[in-house]
Amino acid sequence: MDQSPLIPKPFRLGPFVVIAAVVGIAAVAFAYTAGWLSPHRLTPKKLVAGLAPPGGPALGHRRNHAKGICFTGTLNANGDGSTLSKAQVFVRGQYPVVGRFNLATADPNAADAMVRVRGLGISITTPDGQEWRSAMIDAPIFPASTPKDFYGLLTASASKDPDAMKEFIAGHPGFLTFLGWAKSAPWTSSYAEERYNSLDSFLFVDQSGAKHPIRWSLIPAAQPVPIAPGDLAKRGPDYLEQEITQRVSASPQRWTLVITVANPGDPTADPNKAWPADRRTINAGTLIVQQIEPERDGPCRDINFDPTVLPSGITTSDDPFPAARSAAYSRSYNSRTAESSYYPRTDAGAKQ
Amino acid sequence: MTTARTRFTAPQRLLHWLMAICILSMLFIGVGMVSTVTPKYLTLVQIHKPLGIAILVLVLIRLTLRLIYGAPALPAGLPEPIKLAAHLSQVILYALMIAMPIIGWAMLSAAAYPVVLFGGVHLPPILPVNPGLHTLLWHAHYYLAFAFFAVILMHVAAILFHKLVRNDGVFETMAPVLTHDRSE
């Protein structure tokens, strides 16, 4: 390096202003990207906080669908789904499943009869190393059309303002469809008698690369037996978990995996809108639930049933919810796994 | 580990600037993705994972080149504390470039997430599923990202200081093209 002797120069402010400006602009751009300058941005943190009851979240538990029980079983694919998706999970065969029956509540100790919506999370793995995760509920439609509306619903229902819900409904009439289901649909006394729906639309990608907008449902083999919520309450706060444990130990429980294909123009971006009942359906196989295990030490505990964990052959569609759910579920997972001491395992050591 | 060259070799300079773009993008994608619930979230996550692995591959190549070709000496007249800071910052930057992708990969493994690069291409898990490890790694990934950005800002401030205040040739060692009339 031809090092010329450094002659002391007079101090110049200019270069330091340039340096401060470059560093300052970069730092502000970073802060903006992180959302620190946008208090109105709907962040995963806000969305998850919106789910918490007034007393705060139940530490160590999922921030929603907090009450649940694990299961293991198989998906027996019949091969018919392969016409729509190249995913190995639709090739005729038997694939292992880890899942979770749950109640849509932030309270892991909620009484069964207090929770209207029931859910099922599922993770199916195939020999090619791919995985399909889904979290479904028994409602036929979602209460809101967009993640922003859903946050509005959470805010309104938590509000002390007696008119908050009325105002929300006035601005979001789609919620009435959900409310209609919630008020009129019969309750059952078993997780095994529920139909679970993806609600969100996804795209199946076939061997030729063609994309098919679809939704899916798990339709129970067990005949639903209606029960009044008051009668369910009399059976005890945790009846559903006791019932499914006994039922599955007596015999495996089955659901048919039904794929519904959209017609052009069907609302794929809005899970609040059902598709007409006459849409083409394909029976892709059978979910067989073979064993129930309590969540505390169970195989579903450490799984985030993130609906965007998809095998090659399934992708997200223009439905904005899977992205929002993925972002929020991730935050919930990070929080609850850091709080394990509030929900200790009983077989401490075995899985730690 | 110095060389008589006055500039880093062309492959080293290329890697430096390529990785500068990758790493800055990575840090912005990282803080951006955890702040949104829009569909951008998925796009950003889908870029974040393969880009992280790409950075890991690139930094290993870069470290190898560094061990082979070394680095030009710092100007003789540079005060010792600044020399020490320069060496330390390089060690820290290399450590972060190597550690961050591995921590990210390990964190996903400990949380039972598949590590999807693109389409059907997955990486194997490098840790068993373990919530305690996941928490540790997640915190490390999160806080080290901010530390990484801070160190990069200091690196930028320092090199601008070398160029604009001292004009001592340090910037030219890594400049993509020669920016003043010093000959090599």
UniProtKB/TrEMBL annotation, chain A:
| MF term (GO), any | catalase activity
EC id: 1.11.1.-
Q: Pfam families in the record, alphabetically?
A: Catalase (PF00199)
Recorded superkingdom: Bacteria
**InterPro entries, A to Z:** Catalase, Catalase_core, Catalase_sf, Catalase_SrpA-type_pred
Which GO cellular component term is one of those annotated?
cytoplasm
Q: State the residue spans of region: Disordered.
A: 328-352
Domain (Catalase core) spans 61-337
Task: Tell whether ATP-binding is among the UniProt keywords.
Answer: no
What GO biological process, any one, is recorded here? Answer: hydrogen peroxide catabolic process
Q: Which residues cross the membrane?
A: 16-37
According to its UniProt record, which cofactors does this protein need?
A: heme
Active site at: H65
Tell me the residue numbers annotated for binding heme.
Answer: Y329
Q: Which UniProt keywords apply?
A: Heme, Iron, Membrane, Metal-binding, Oxidoreductase, Peroxidase, Transmembrane, Transmembrane helix
What this protein is reported to do is described as: Has an organic peroxide-dependent peroxidase activity.
* Assigned protein family: Belongs to the catalase family.
Q: In its UniProt entry, what is this protein called?
A: Catalase-related peroxidase
Organism, as annotated = Silvibacterium bohemicum
TrEMBL record, chain B:
Record's GO cellular component terms: plasma membrane
Name the domain of life: Bacteria
Question: Which compartment or compartments is the protein found in?
Answer: Cell membrane
Kindly state which keywords UniProt assigns to this record, in alphabetical order.
Cell membrane, Electron transport, Heme, Iron, Membrane, Metal-binding, Transmembrane, Transmembrane helix, Transport
* Reported cofactor(s): heme b
Transmembrane regions = 14-38, 50-70, 91-120, 140-161
Give the Gene Ontology MF terms in alphabetical order. Answer: electron transfer activity; heme binding; metal ion binding
Any GO BP? respiratory electron transport chain
Q: Where does the Cytochrome b561 bacterial/Ni-hydrogenase domain lie?
A: 7-175
| Membrane-related topology note | Multi-pass membrane protein
Chief place where the protein resides:
membrane
Against InterPro entries, the record matches this protein to: Cyt_b561_bac/Ni-Hgenase, Cytochrome_b561_oxidase, Di-haem_cyt_TM
UniProt-listed Pfam families:
Ni_hydr_CYTB
Q: Transcription regulation among the record's keywords?
A: no
Q: Which family does it belong to?
A: Belongs to the cytochrome b561 family.
Q: What is this protein called?
A: Cytochrome b561
- Species source reads Silvibacterium bohemicum
